[in-house]
Write a structure and sequence with these properties.
heterodimer, A: 366 residues, mainly alpha, ABC transporter involved in vitamin B12 uptake, BtuC, two-stranded antiparallel sheet, globular, B: 640 residues, alpha/beta, Rossmann fold, 5-stranded mixed beta sheet, 21 helices
Chain lengths: 366, 640
């Protein structure tokens, strides 16, 4: 059975067709429009402020995709994802700053792209390392081991040792012109946005492809019932570690991208709260769906921005509101999670599915 | 390619046609698909050719001689069709059995037809064959296809289809060209099918049909309604039904459209929706089922969806009624209908799997006018077919744009229809069968000077359309001599989703009364929403609110009936009519004489001045348990 709703008279003779993307004209049109909005509409017609909001959405979604893979598809609950983003960010930065690149690599703008790949691999391996306990423990205990990843990596190794490299104290800063991809120097909001758009598109393609492959089916089987999955001959330790690797690699790319956005780097960019935030994003967006990771990111980032805009006029009368906005943000995050768990426990992706069904089942309800 | 461009001569046989179609399409076109493991696995004409060839040669090697009978039983699968085609190619005669045939029926047919080879789908069919093999000495081989459960079967009689094909392949290597040569020897007047007509009154009779019969029938039907080789057809009704042979073999082979076989009989409905066939032919029960499904979904839909559906159907009915009356559709209605199509009908047809349908046929029994109108209001070109096994399936059909729902249409080309003095329908065409197998007497009675005596009563109306009455007496008269048609009233009542069966009485009585069976699931759901408590069917059926509901349905049906035909009284029965209780035939027709005797008390109460009727009976469940029912049934009076 195809995974999308097909009109009458549209059937498949091969599994390739059955698992294909963009199966109907309607879906094709919809997706082309979406790409036009992402690659033309937002960067060309919105101002820098909203483009930067778009960039934040993309960065959040990059992290959320990895969390979605671990929690939503492989059933491995993680609360340490920010650690792997941090590993990616530091790998990329250190490579750009410290490696004695041959001149042609710098001229051709290859240093940063290569560092993104290296960040992916390093973060992936680092993630596998902290995924090892998943062979033995699950559920609450796994949450604790992933939290250990956060504290060991960010609070201990990065803060105490890695940040000291080069003797600049806590923060690294990247000189202008070092973030260069091919002929393009990434230093405006629009350029950062395009980098994000390309990377997130690639990541969604990779993840969606993995999910319709043998590995994806194995992950879902492990999520639904690991004992049954093992009885079916799935090597569950291997596939769990593979999930950690892929999620870690995507976190690494996210981290390497983050550097291009800030041109500076500090362990404070990757607090434990960011790991929790990413889990909140997929809870709100919908667990077990790529749409969910994206919807959740849009919702969280845009809602927080709107909240801030609402607070600014009030701050004339209550200046403390703006000063303590970080706390208001945390409170809003908590409220949003509570509200979603009560009123829309399946997340925004489920609501999206219901909207599609409403029209697919037209003129009836089932 | 369009229409029929094949010259059918007396020399042409189904296998010769098969061979030329395989040569024409080869590897480039899909001949059939079967849904397996979630996808529609295609078989090209070349695959079809090879499978049939080796199977046919294997059968020859195992001793199949021209004229030998090959019986087949199983679901609709490519393998079933290959076996039939293989038997025909070897010069054999195909006999199909219904999947749900009783043991003694299987035994009778296998024995009576002198079956030599029995082709069964799997273990279930093989078991049937093994249990009767001692009583059918002519049975030489049992061929099976599905290996599930067959591991411990080692009887010499058994051989797998794969093994037969392997033997055939060996024979082909030894004697190349034997297959084609055997086919060349065939002649159009050879017998190709031996079809047993269901015998409700007597033992089944085996009708002999020749290649010429089958091919001319297909050609004549398609000269009325052309098909194309790009069409899709879903084959899911039993091959033992002549209608399915007619579509899959007679028409399918001549045109070369693609046959699609569903995954399982249970998934047929869903599979039809996926394929979206261009042509379909089914008994009225299927269309009635679709209508009911739509009505129930409509009841459960949200307000806005209901309103849109109501508006859309209202426009559709208006347009359909104008077309039935052959009046021009005004321009504003055309526009409205187009909007209705975009808003509602398009999607609804999609759900029913009828988006691409060009011709939908119904035949085998009468269909109510409401159902007919329902499909035409949706823009589905539903037409009635009349025919019987003895004329290779079809002799009369509605023409496009000339559909009258109380008739079955006009004869297809090369077919003459006549009515005898006492109203019996006679027909004559090249497709009239050769006679009954081993039953001279029945042949003499049915075939007189080339005219086929159908046993059906009917007349030809002012437009030249044939009107067929039911085999049982269709028209009854009230005591004052005014006629009415109980079957017509029953189909009208059954159009309501709340009513599953209805029985209309009134022959030689003062007024018409009805015994109604509610639809347990639909009324049950309705009652749940109304917070009515009930524990069983009979309790639900006697609830005041349910009686009111049924009364409203009858009043609705009464509205456009002439005065004498209006139903004055009714009773909700405490159970549904069931074939296991002999109240219905296996094809779901009501056995009036039987129920009249069985429910004598109810009938008397309907014509007496009483408000209740006391019932004290015992009903037997399928598992043998018995339950005594003591209940009072409400007798409702309807003011007209």
């Amino acid at each position: 059975m195809s995974h999308v709703w097909l009109p009458c008279g549209d059937y498949h003779q091969t599994y390739e067709e059955d698992q294909g993307w963009w199966q109907t004209t309607f879906i094709k049109t919809k997706m082309v429009l979406l790409l036009l909005v992402v690659f033309v509409g937002i960067p060309q017609f919105l101002d820098d402020y909203w483009i930067s909001v778009g960039t934040m959405v993309g960065y959040t979604a990059m992290g959320a995709l990895g969390v979605q893979l671990l929690i939503g598809y492989a059933g491995l609950i993680t609360l340490g994802h920010a650690a792997f983003i941090a590993v990616g960010a530091y790998t990329s930065t250190l490579m750009v700053l410290q490696v004695p690149w041959p001149q042609f690599m710098i001229d051709w703008g290859l240093a940063y792209p290569v560092s993104i790949l290296a960040a992916a691999v390093t973060a992936g391996i680092w993630s596998v390392l902290f995924g090892l306990p998943s062979a033995k423990v699950k559920g609450f205990y796994l949450i604790l081991t992933t939290m250990a990843a956060q504290f060991i990596t960010v609070d201990f190794i990065l803060t105490q040792y890695v940040s000291q490299i080069g003797g600049r104290g806590q923060a690294f800063s990247l000189p202008p012109g070092t973030i260069k991809i091919g002929p393009w120097i990434i230093d405006t909001e629009t350029e950062v946005y395009y980098t994000m758009a390309v990377l997130i598109t690639l990541m969604v393609i990779v993840l969606a492809n993995l999910l319709r492959s043998k590995a994806g089916r194995a992950w879902v089987a492990i999520r639904d019932n690991d004992i049954a999955a093992e009885a079916l001959g799935i090597n569950i330790v291997w596939y769990k570690l593979l999930a950690f690797f892929v999620a870690g690699a995507m976190a690494g790319v996210a981290g390497a991208f983050w550097v291009s956005n800030t041109a500076a780097l500090s362990p404070e960019h990757f607090p434990w709260f960011w790991s929790l935030w990413l889990v909140g994003v997929i809870l709100i967006g919908g667990v077990g769906s790529i749409h969910g990771a994206v919807f959740g990111s849009i919702f969280m980032v845009v809602v927080m921005e709107l909240l801030q805009m609402a607070v600014i006029p009030l701050s004339i009368y209550y200046p403390k509101l703006l000063m303590d906005f970080a706390f208001i943000k945390d409170m809003a995050f908590g409220l949003a999670i509570c509200a979603f768990l009560i009123y829309e426990p399946n997340g925004l992706a489920y609501r999206w599915w219901q909207i599609k069904n409403y029209f697919n089942l037209w003129p009836f309800s089932y | 390619m369009s229409g029929v461009n094949m010259e059918i001569s007396k020399d042409l046989t189904i296998p010769k046609l098969f061979l030329s179609q395989c040569r024409k399409y080869g590897d480039g076109k899909v001949a059939m698909r079967e849904k397996e493991f979630g996808i529609w696995r295609p078989y090209t004409w070349k695959d079809y050719y090879e499978n049939v060839k080796y199977l046919s040669l294997g059968m020859m090697e195992l001793g199949l001689e021209p004229g030998d009978k090959v019986s087949m039983i199983g679901d609709n699968r490519p393998e079933g069709l290959w076996a039939e085609m293989a038997a025909l190619c070897a010069g054999g005669v195909a006999v199909w059995l219904f999947q749900d045939c009783m043991m003694d029926e299987v035994k009778y047919i296998i024995d009576h037809s002198d079956t030599k080879f029995f082709v069964g789908e799997g273990q279930e069919e093989v078991d049937k064959a093994l249990s009767i093999k001692d009583e059918c000495p002519k049975l030489a081989k049992v061929i099976w296809d599905d290996p599930k459960g067959m591991r411990n079967y080692h009887q010499d009689l058994l051989v797998s289809m794969k093994e037969v094909q392997r033997i055939g392949k060996e024979l082909d290597e030894r004697e190349p060209g034997l297959f084609e040569k055997t086919i060349e020897n065939g002649h159009g007047d050879d017998i190709c099918l031996l079809f047993y007509t269901s015998g409700t009154t007597s033992l089944p009779k085996g009708a002999l049909l020749s290649h010429w019969n089958m091919l001319t029938m297909g050609r004549n039907l398609m000269s009325v309604d052309p098909c194309y080789d790009t069409d899709d057809f879903v084959s899911y009704l039993p091959f033992a039904w002549i209608g399915e042979q007619m579509m899959s073999i007679s028409c399918g082979l001549q045109i070369g459209y693609t046959l699609n076989f569903p995954e399982e009989p249970e998934t047929a409905q869903e599979n039809i929706r996926e394929i979206g066939p261009h042509v379909m032919f089914a008994p009225p029960r299927l269309y009635e089922g679709l209508t009911r499904q739509v009505q129930v979904k409509y009841i459960d839909a949200t307000w806005i969806k209901r309103k849109i559906y109501e508006t859309g159907t209202r426009i559709g009915y208006k347009v359909a009624n104008l077309k039935f009356e052959k009046q021009a559709v005004p321009f504003y209605l055309t526009i409205l209908n187009w909007i209705g199509y975009a808003l509602m009908q398009k999607k609804l047809k999609d759900h029913l799997g009828m988006s691409r349908i060009r011709h939908a046929y119904t035949g085998g029994a009468a269909m109510g006018p409401d159902h007919f109108r329902f499909f035409h209001a949706l823009g589905v070109n539903l037409k009635q077919i009349y025919g019987q096994t003895e004329i290779a399936g079809i002799s009369v059909v509605h023409r496009d744009g000339d559909v009258k729902f109380d008739t079955v249409g006009t004869p297809i080309p090369e077919t003459e229809v006549d009515i005898t003095e006492d109203g019996e329908i006679l027909s004559k065409s090249p497709s009239v069968f050769l006679g009954y197998y081993k039953n001279e007497e029945a042949t003499r009675e049915t075939l007189v000077d080339g005219w086929l005596h159908s046993g059906d009563k009917g007349f030809i109306d002012e437009d030249g359309h044939l009107v067929v009455f039911d085999r049982s007496k269709d028209v009854m008269t009230l005591s004052d001599g005014r006629p009415f048609s109980p079957q017509y009233l029953e189909t009208r009542l059954k159009f309501s989703p709340y009513i599953s069966e209805a029985w209309v009485i009134g022959h030689e009585r003062d007024y018409i009364a009805a015994v109604m069976c509610i639809d347990y699931s639909v009324v049950g759901k309705w009652a749940d929403e109304k917070k009515l408590n009930y524990t069983s069917y009979h309790e639900l059926s006697q609830k005041d609110q349910v009686c009111d509901l049924v009364q409203a349905q009858i009043e609705e049906a009464n509205k456009d009936l002439p005065d004498p035909a209006k139903i004055r009284k009714f009773v909700n029965l405490y159970k549904v009519f069931d074939a296991d209780d002999e109240e219905l035939t296996r094809t779901s027709k009501l056995r009036r004489a039987f129920v009249e005797k069985r429910y004598e008390d109810i009938v008397n109460a309907l014509y007496a001045d009483t408000d209740t009727v006391h019932m004290d009976t015992t009903i037997t469940y399928e598992d043998g348990r018995e339950q005594r029912i003591k209940t009072d049934l409400q007798v409702r009076r309807i003011d007209v």
